[in-house]
Amino acid sequence: MASIQYRPIGHTAKDIAADVETAVRDGRLSPGEPLPPVRSLATELGLAPGTVAAAYGQLRERGLVETRGRRGTFVRPRPPIATRSQPQPGHAGALDLASGQPDPRLLPKLNPGPLRHRSPAAAPQEFVLPELREQARDRLVRDGVPAEWISVTSGGLDAIGRVLSAHLRAGDTVAVEDPGWPNALDLIATMGLRVLPLELDAAGIRPEGLTRALHAGARALIVTNRAQNPTGSYLTAERARQLRAVLGDHPDTLVVEDDHAGELATAGLATLAGATESWGFIRSASKPYGPDLRVGTLTGDETTVARVEGRMRTTSGWVSLLLQQLLLNLWTSERTGTVIRRARHAYDDRRLGLVSALTDRGLSATGASGLNVWVAVADETAVVTGLLAGGWSVAAGSRFRQRSAPGIRITVSNLDLAQLDRLADDVAEACGSATNAATGGYSV
């Protein structure tokens, strides 16, 4: 276990929790750092172990820390609190293959276009632009998603949080993909919800795993339809049929679908929409059109959409109609459509080319859709460090994993085709040998 420099102080569980939170906020305690073991801290402070355990429990409920079995309690990689510590510097000279963001060279121009006589100085009379609602409905229906009720949120993660909060309460269990999207895992933690990880294969989560999760009390399921982060898997039509059969026996399960790649995905869309009484299907604009375009479209059952929209009216109010108009202009632009199609094929060429190059070198690599390639490795830290020395910055799999086997995520956005072979050689060298990575991929 790593050495522990920071020692919390306090006489009550509330005091200890507040001291830890302050230490995270002012930078004395960094993300990923361990907290002292419960019994040793209790002895040091002259308190009962139950008092320290209660403090750590409060911090877990707020999403500030996580317990890693016998290894102890650690500050979460992204604790939900503003800090005064300096941002982590970038790796000078290394190519960014870690951030997960789209290639800026492949994004369409964000042209506001006509504003339809709407003044940004006036509060809107409508929550969703009628033209945007109709465009969203048409696009979803073409993809086989029932879309009678449409709303908009401030991006995909905002929509996921709002749908979960519309039905769940602290302590409820959410079944999630493993490995999965760290932002969603952080969100679930801050909401006081419990995570139940589900294993993946190339076709998505497995029906037998979902069955076990639902019997174990999971009240909700989050699924990535395409471009799953980090593995690149996508839900096939056959797997969707199998999952629908499982969900049919649990109609009170909340199903949340995240189609974040949207128009960038070449894989066909298979959906679980409508398989249960409560569901939400989310598509954000960030990956195809740009990370700063914080608009997500949401459809679902009437109750879910009404609750989300009603609570937004009492908090953020509405998503800017100027942003909605911008997204509408992009959707209806022929030129933008051409740019998106070009980006889609460029990402496919980079991703599939890298998977092929890695596989040729005996590595276990997957990436059927989206922006990422997942590579199974024996030692994440050694591989990430070795690649950084070679000028490549990749993401360690520990950010994404719950119980699944080690790996690294490589985002292909900033890669050129001419770099694929050199990168694959460097990954193989960093792994030590091809056999180190042949551990069965991301299926556990």
Automatic annotation (TrEMBL):
One of its GO terms (molecular function) is transaminase activity. Gene3D superfamilies: Type I PLP-dependent aspartate aminotransferase-like (Major domain), Winged helix-like DNA-binding domain superfamily/Winged helix DNA-binding domain. The keyword Cytoplasm does not apply. Residues 10-78 form the HTH gntR-type domain. Keywords: Aminotransferase, DNA-binding, Pyridoxal phosphate, Transcription, Transcription regulation, Transferase. SMART domains: HTH_GNTR (SM00345). It comes from Jatrophihabitans telluris. In the C-terminal section; belongs to the class-I pyridoxal-phosphate-dependent aminotransferase family. PANTHER family: HTH-TYPE TRANSCRIPTIONAL REGULATORY PROTEIN GABR. This is Aminotransferase class I/II-fold pyridoxal phosphate-dependent enzyme. SUPFAM superfamilies: PLP-dependent transferases, Winged helix' DNA-binding domain. InterPro entries: Aminotransferase_I/II_large, HTH_trans_reg/aminotransferase, PyrdxlP-dep_Trfase, PyrdxlP-dep_Trfase_major, Tscrpt_reg_HTH_GntR, WH-like_DNA-bd_sf, WH_DNA-bd_sf. Residues 73-126 are annotated as: Disordered. The keyword DNA-binding applies.
